[in-house]
Amino acid sequence: MVITPPAPPVHPVYVIGGGPGGLAVAAALRARGVRAVVLEKSDAVGASWRAHYDRLRLHTTRRLSALPGLRMPRSFGRWVARADVVRYLETYAEKHELELVTGVEVHRIERAGGDWILHATGGRRLTGRAVVVATGYNHTPHLPEWPGRSTYEGEFCHARAYRAPGPYEGKDVLVVGAGNTGAEIAADLADGGAARVRLAVRTVPHIVRRTTLGWPAQRSGILVRRLPAALVDRLGALLARFATPDLTAHGLPRPEKGLATRQREGAIPVQDVGLIDAVRAGKVEIVAAVEAFEHGEVVLADGSRIAPDAVIAATGYRRALEPLLGHLDVLDGGGLPVTHGARSPREAPGLYFTGFTNPISGMFRELALDAERIARRIARSAPKPSR
To answer: What is the spatial distance between Cα 135 and Cα 322, in angstroms, rounded to a whole number?
Structure first.
């Protein structure tokens, strides 16, 4: 009698992160017959979206923001609200019957032969044949090391903690940082009853209309993303003269560097959802960058001092991937993965990343494209379970 040895176990693909990127990859894998397990450290999908401020809407159109296998309902409107994004992610996980494990945080990933070992909450030691890291571009709030910040006794928070303008009604508020978050929070405060709103700007951003004559800025971003940066810079400058007013007199001159050049340096343009009108009306005042905190005051780069009632730091996020996989030599000097999408680092085959770029063509759209590419690559190399 010939005894056939049992086939080795087929380990699942582990997806770390239950946001839109992780869910999209898991759904694309499941559609190809590959078992994927999503590990989410919070108690529900879309944790980051649940924590965002109430006013937030996708800056990309509903039609170009759907994940693989499920359209966004027309009832969400063209610009999908934060709460509807959360509803969509919940529905997405249910529709695709995703294998989702919540309350589990992965602390470290290690290579073990042809597999991956994940060290997780509660001493768990999970073995996967591949790993997709989708913990998000905006993971850990970042605060600059301002002198005097640790002893500042005024009201202070990172933008992650901001939800609505109500608590700031009648107050003098300084918003620090002129990215999309800072610009929108400043406009929200101006509309929501703050007595005075100032926006501290270190580097003047490119400001673009969300739509121009009905044409979404996202579609322009898709069309030009493969063009040479110098050409896109020129096109962007021409469009700016046509579509956005010159705010130099209000403290926001035209940026010196072109739109594509800035984007390649990591700074995407600010989509206007009220900032331009608020600045022109004097409801949002532009001030110099913050340099320090001293004796209850905020010291600005031009030497002036102000004493706002509250400071909201819209100073961005860190990816915080170093504890998870910094030992694998797969991160660049800025802490970002050296590869993304369907490409694995040469030293780490079977390790994939999604959601760690900030494209002008739209984050959700790129997550959807990455999900399909990653799933195809993994499915081609996946062993078939024995029957």
So the answer is: 12
Tell me what the mean pLDDT of segment 85-93 comes to: 98
Q: Residue 242 pLDDT > 90, yes or no?
A: no
Look at residues 49, 32, 138 and name the one whose alpha carbon lies nearest to residue 90: 49
- 20: amino acid identity, one letter: P
Strand order in the sheet with 284-288: 155-158, 310-313, 172-176, 196-201, 284-288
Strand-strand pairing, 297-300 and 305-306: antiparallel
Q: How many Cβ atoms are within 10 Å of 31's Cβ, its own excluded?
A: 15
**How many angstroms separate the CA atoms of 279 and 287, rounded?**
11
Cα within 13 Å of Cα(214), Cβ side: 0
- 22 versus 362: the higher-pLDDT residue is 22
Cα–Cα distance measured from residue 147 to residue 292, given in angstroms and rounded to the nearest whole number: 5
Q: Could you give the CA distance from residue 380 to residue 387 in angstroms, rounded to a whole number?
A: 19
The phi, psi pair for 208, rounded to 5°, reads -125, 150
The rounded distance, in Å, linking the Cα atoms of 68 and 177 is 34
Q: What is the pLDDT of residue 24?
A: 98
The confidence band for 357, taking pLDDT boundaries of 50, 70 and 90, is confident
